[in-house]
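Q: How would the structure tokens look for this protein?
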Amino acid sequence: MKPPCMDAAEYAGWCAMNTERWGRAKSPCTDCTTEFAAEMRFAGRCDGTPGAVPKHSSPFADSVKRRAYYREKARQARRRAGMVDRAELHASRVAKAHALQATGLSIADIALAMGLHRFTITRYMKEAAA
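A: Here is the predicted structure in token form.
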């Protein structure tokens, strides 16, 4: 059912993007942003709640909640994976800086070779020594 906030072309575009791959939403209200809803309320064209299931499709609330749950779990997993990658990158930079210092290079030369600031290299050296 086309909501009053969208014209026919917008609704057709939303229907085309609402595929099974990402989990099919029953209404555009579930994908609506608060900014767009505020604009449409100001224009008198919004009758729903952004990010929620409209009242007329309440039997599908569980599927929306499930989709939101898995979306949040995936976001948390990406954050955890990003933190691991940053930690590994930091450890490899510390090890590389320490190895370059063992060759007799100065802090300035190490910073130039690694493309980092010399204060960062100095901090890496303190971490490697500790």
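The mean pLDDT is 76.

The first helix runs from residue 8 to 17.

Upvote if useful.
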